Amino acid sequence: MSLDCLTYSTTSAGLPFLLLPKEHLKHSSPKRVSLTLNPTHLPSEYRRGSNGTAFITNKRLVYIAEKHPDNDFQDFVLLFNANLHDFKMETPWFGANKFTVLFKPTMENAGLNHMYIWKGIFSFNEGGIADFSTQVGKAYNEWKYGQDGEQLPAYHE
């Protein structure tokens, strides 16, 4: 099942999905990242994808899981928009490092109940969380404030 409608196609950049207009890749995670999605008010209703890759673009966060019968979904897309409430990195002493994001689904037919705020937990089993967290923060701030990599002019006395 696809959550939030991802279009698959091998691009010239070697990505397994089509980029939106004026979209470019910022970062991709190592393999073996799992994603668990659950509504904040109903923790027992959850969806899980395992052993996938997360991609960060300048417009969205994309997760593609490996094909496996235990996975509840094949892919997940989270647009950087007003429905993205919060995100943070967690590095516990024991267990996998986690990147948590709170969001509200934007479409009724996206596979998630749009009436709830959802929590997405990306579990990094083989490292890479620090770079991932930094790149999500940069991409989100560039989207939110419209910087998109523009440099400030040099200061002259």
TrEMBL record:
InterPro entries: WBP2-like. It comes from the Eukaryota. GO terms for cellular component: nucleus. GO terms for molecular function: chromatin DNA binding; transcription coactivator activity. PANTHER family: WW DOMAIN BINDING PROTEIN 2, ISOFORM E (PTHR31606). This is GRAM domain-containing protein. It comes from Saccharomycopsis crataegensis.
